[in-house]
Known about the structure:
The protein has about 300 residues and is α/β, with parallel strands linked by helices. The chain has 2 domains: about 5-195, P-loop containing nucleotide triphosphate hydrolases (Rossmann fold); about 200-305, 2-Layer Sandwich (Transcription Regulator spoIIAA). It has helices spanning about 25-40, 55-60, 85-90, 95-100, 110-125, 150-165, 180-190, 230-235, 255-265, 285-290, and strands at about 5, 15-20, 45-50, 90-95, 130-135, 170-175, 195, 200, 205-210, 215-225, 245-255, 275-280, 300-305. α5 crosses α6 (about 150-165) and α8 runs parallel beside α9.
Amino acid sequence: MSLQRKAVGSMELGDHLCLFFDNDDERRSIMAAYARDGVRAGQKVLYVSDAVPARDVLDWLIGDEKDAPGPMPADADAKPVDLAEAMDAGHFVVRTAEETFLASGRFDPQESIELMATEIDLALVQGYTGVRVAGEARFSLRRWPGTEQHGDFERMLDEVFMTTDLKAMAICQFDRRWFDAARLEQLESCHMGRVRVDDYYDDGSLRITPIFSPPGVAMTGVIDASTRPAAERVLESIATRTGLLCLDLGGVTDCDADGLRLLTRADRPDRGPNRGLLLRDVPPAIGERLRSAGLVARSGVSIEERPR
């Protein structure tokens, strides 16, 4: 049974969450936000790499900036973070899984937890407000000595997070393309919950969340005069992207006439060449209104309506 799903921007010291992914853009978006938020908060960020070579982690995370939409109202005033500068200053550190977990020649869960505790204590002495750890877990499948105890490590680590006032948080990353479903279910039970991407916008009436396969946004709630400006701003912020744009409307409970027109204008030629628009999981009532208004009967717009 799945536990809580917490937006990465809402994480707090004491959280031990897992990230299950099969889309690298989604993973990068979450991890880049996690690292920047940590530096912004005066925390030390430790990234333990395996699938992404340690020398490439910084470029990989920074690469998310060119694809990210513009800031939404909630974060428009947030202090920008330069991860390269943070790395030079020692605030953002990248290590390999091998040097982190196999310093003694084999993986030892208790030793690894003790080393992490020492790292946290040292960071606090240095004046950091806490430590953010992000670990790629694919190393546990490499059959290095002791890695068969990785599940024990996750259980022990979760107990430490739940029973102590730890000035740290952690995200453990698991690639669904490498871990089977049964193993992922077992590993999820060793965490407080899952982490998810931050919303672009959420005012209680409308939530707009990035999706990555295909790229676009999912909308949940009501699109009306009060929420249309936010929806328009999000669509404008991703306007320069080319190729297929997906608007998942499965969570939309109501949408006024101007909102319908806004959604179907997302494929305008001036918003990027070769743009196609997919309206996915459209509620039947909204699909009927779209068709009756003639808003989807043109080239480049596809609609996938939810079965009645």
